[in-house]
Design a protein that fits this description.
The chain has 184 residues and is α+β, with helices and mostly antiparallel strands. The protein has one domain: Alpha-Beta Plaits, CATH 3.30.70. 39% of the residues lie in helices and 14% in strands. A four-stranded antiparallel β-sheet has the order 2-3-1-4. It starts with 12 loop residues before the first strand and ends in a 13-residue tail after the last helix. One of its GO terms (molecular function) is sequence-specific DNA binding. This is Transposase. One of its GO terms (biological process) is DNA transposition. Keywords: Membrane, Transmembrane, Transmembrane helix.
């Protein structure tokens, strides 16, 4: 992988995108989105994650993140992806009414077999595609707007703040599912 897409500065803010292998639309189900929300909440509380903006789409996630002092963002992202993958895969396996179970597990197993880093299944693509942001630049505001408008562009809602699995409501003075860490 190119050094272009790595977390170089542990004190920086990053726009991060990551996707489910094969762009499988796992997050069309509330239960799986909620498990990812739980993972993000845990990482904010226990792992040193500062979450500045976020959105969960049907098959990918966009975050604007940084880490608290003493924590490495690369480690936080690794743990977030690993833990959420384990929880979501378990839920898929255990869910008696998941109509896509066999198909999804087949694709996750196939992806896992193609990656020597996995034993059985691979849920997330390996890359995070982090892009360092200057919080005082136009690019920072553009990334927040891009992230928040994903559900609008996808036709899920008319207004970004109406999408429950997004931090847009926090930016409009409301209280979202996770909350955000404002820049000081």
């Amino acid at each position: 992988m190119s050094i272009k897409y790595k977390f170089h500065d542990s004190t920086a803010i990053y726009f991060v995108s990551f996707a489910v292998v094969g762009w499988i639309d796992v997050f069309t189900r509330t239960v799986y989105r909620d498990l990812l929300v739980e993972s993000l909440t845990y990482c904010r509380r226990e792992k040193g994650l500062n979450l500045h903006a976020w959105v969960i789409m049907s098959n990918h996630v966009h975050l604007i993140v940084s880490s608290r002092e003493g924590y490495l963002l690369a480690n936080i992202m690794r743990d977030l992806k690993k833990y959420s993958a384990v929880r979501i895969l378990k839920e898929i396996k255990d869910c008696a009414i998941e109509s896509r179970k066999e198909w999804m597990l087949y694709l996750f197993a196939k992806a896992g077999q193609q990656n020597s880093n996995n034993k059985n299944f691979q849920f997330w693509r390996q890359d995070n595609h982090p892009i360092e942001l200057d919080p005082y630049s136009n690019m920072f505001e553009e990334r927040i707007n891009y992230l928040h408008n994903n559900p609008v562009e996808a036709g899920l809602v008319a207004n970004a703040s109406d999408y429950l699995y997004c931090s847009a409501i926090d930016y409009e003075g409301g209280k979202g599912l996770i909350g955000i860490d404002l820049l000081v």
